[in-house]
Task: inverse folding
């Protein structure tokens, strides 16, 4: 499977490198790639469903490139740029063609904010417009910096995979700012899961005296902290872990992540 | 006494307003203070340094015990400023109010000196507003924090006409390091891709971090493209699409 992916990536890279710089909204290399068996959605198709016809005027497609996402996934990247070469729309797809990211630039800060139910309804409408699957369960809705984030966190066997799932970002009037879909690979779960009390005992043994520990740890699929560095190129397998929270003497909160099978320390998180 | 003399010396030294500084608190998160190895502060700093350098700035600053109040005061007038440390709406006696700020490293687990906005404002007197300020700590993205004003940046979002040539990022409430690292990485990648700061921030919002663990905020000009003023926009090679 890995070899097939690398071959596809190489093919995309070759065609992208050989193609002429884009000069029109439809990238000239897209049909070649589609004929070559890569079934990703051309950015022009996505743009016509998301951007008003007048806004499309003057936008130019740049050559397609293969990039890695922040989580290390290989993706096909397509861009539309406007005046001065400033990016207006970005679309990224996985090598199997699934849409992973749509990001619009310059979406105005308008409207007075959305209620959670209206935001969720708008987000679903945007997902449907671009033909994406509706995620299972109810989303969480949070406001940040004049935008509204509608997030469906991925769950596997009832356990959350933090930072994985579907996210729709809206402006205060419900217009689309972007959509992202993240799905990390998971390691096999341990044959036997150590009870939560064992995780609390193990964490307490590592911490300085005077630290208070929450007695109710929770399970989650986590990425080991020391892997997935900005210099790491590969994807990091997420592992099933007990997340133990607590507070240091000065009130600083922390979370320790311990492998649910071996109780090995996988990661650490703190709140500065 | 020695501290007062050093502080006075630092205040009389006027650093160039060009250039960038990156500070990160390593000690408070190190094994000796928390019981576990934590390389996150170094990673935060590395990301910021790479981004600032990519945008054409010469980068100074300090990571670890040399990140002192004096070092911050000396670098406060820089065009681009990044810090990762403990932050809060600290009470400042002189102002008789909660004003924001962050702690230096100073090699201390607890009780490291606090750098208040007024100290930064004093060092920046007469300097133009900073081009890019990133305060990677808890609470300094809240309205009550006076850090944006200390860097000459008004707490408003401007998009379109009369955008200021400044951009400030901070976090509201508690900010967890794990998700902040991902958010910041996406923001820096956006800037290095050549998108304006506001669009880079929007793109970072799309990173699927847990919004319960991080509430980022910004002020300044949405379309501002931070870069060293000594040159035109730096050549970002394959990273840019212009």
Result:
């Amino acid at each position: 499977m890995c070899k097939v992916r690398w071959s596809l990536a190489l093919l995309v890279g070759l065609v992208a490198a050989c193609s002429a710089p884009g000069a029109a909204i439809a990238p000239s290399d897209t049909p070649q790639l589609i004929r070559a068996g890569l079934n990703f959605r051309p950015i022009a198709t996505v743009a016509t469903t998301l951007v008003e016809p007048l806004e499309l005027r003057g936008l130019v497609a740049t050559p397609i490139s293969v990039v890695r996402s922040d989580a290390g996934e290989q993706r096909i990247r397509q861009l539309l740029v406007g005046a001065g070469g400033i990016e207006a729309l970005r679309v990224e797809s996985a090598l199997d063609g699934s849409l992973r990211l749509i990001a619009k630039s310059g979406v105005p800060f308008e409207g007075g904010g959305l209620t959670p139910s209206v935001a969720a309804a708008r987000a679903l409408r945007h997902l449907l417009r671009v033909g994406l699957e509706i995620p299972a369960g109810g989303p969480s809705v949070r406001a940040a910096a004049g935008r509204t984030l509608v997030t469906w966190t991925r769950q596997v066997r009832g356990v959350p995979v933090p930072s994985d799932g579907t996210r729709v970002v809206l402006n205060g009037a419900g217009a689309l700012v972007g959509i992202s879909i993240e799905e990390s690979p998971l390691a096999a779960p341990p044959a036997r899961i150590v009870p939560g009390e064992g995780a609390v005992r193990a964490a307490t043994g590592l911490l300085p005296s005077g630290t208070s520990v929450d007695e109710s740890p929770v399970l989650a699929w986590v990425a080991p902290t020391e892997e997935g560095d900005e210099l790491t190129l590969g994807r990091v397998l997420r592992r099933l872990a007990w997340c133990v929270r607590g507070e240091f003497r000065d009130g600083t909160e922390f979370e320790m992540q311990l492998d649910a099978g071996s109780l090995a320390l996988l990661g650490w998180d703190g709140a500065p | 006494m020695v501290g007062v003399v050093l502080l006075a010396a630092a205040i009389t030294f006027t650093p160039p307003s060009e250039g960038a500084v990156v500070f990160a608190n390593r000690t408070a998160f190190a094994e000796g203070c928390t019981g576990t190895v934590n390389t996150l502060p170094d990673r935060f700093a590395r990301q910021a340094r790479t981004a600032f350098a990519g945008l054409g700035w010469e980068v100074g600053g300090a990571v670890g015990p040399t990140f002192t109040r004096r070092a911050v005061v000396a670098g406060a007038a820089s065009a681009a400023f990044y810090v990762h440390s403990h932050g809060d709406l600290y009470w400042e006696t002189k102002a008789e109010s909660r004003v924001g700020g962050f702690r230096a490293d100073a090699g201390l687990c607890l009780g490291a000196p606090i750098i208040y906005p007024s100290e930064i404002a004093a060092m920046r007197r007469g300097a133009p507003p900073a081009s890019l300020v990133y305060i990677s700590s808890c609470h300094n993205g809240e309205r009550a924090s006076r850090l944006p004003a200390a860097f000459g940046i008004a707490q408003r979002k401007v998009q379109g006409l009369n955008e200021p040539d400044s951009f400030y990022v901070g976090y509201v409430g508690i900010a967890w390091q794990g998700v902040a690292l991902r958010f910041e990485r996406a923001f820096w990648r956006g800037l290095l891709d050549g998108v304006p700061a506001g669009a880079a921030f929007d793109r970072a919002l799309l990173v699927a971090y847990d919004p319960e663990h991080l509430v980022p905020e910004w002020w300044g000009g949405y379309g501002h493209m931070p870069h060293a003023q000594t040159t035109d926009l730096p050549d970002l090679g394959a990273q840019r699409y212009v």
Notes: The longest strand of chain A covers residues 159-170. Chain A has six helices and 14 strands.
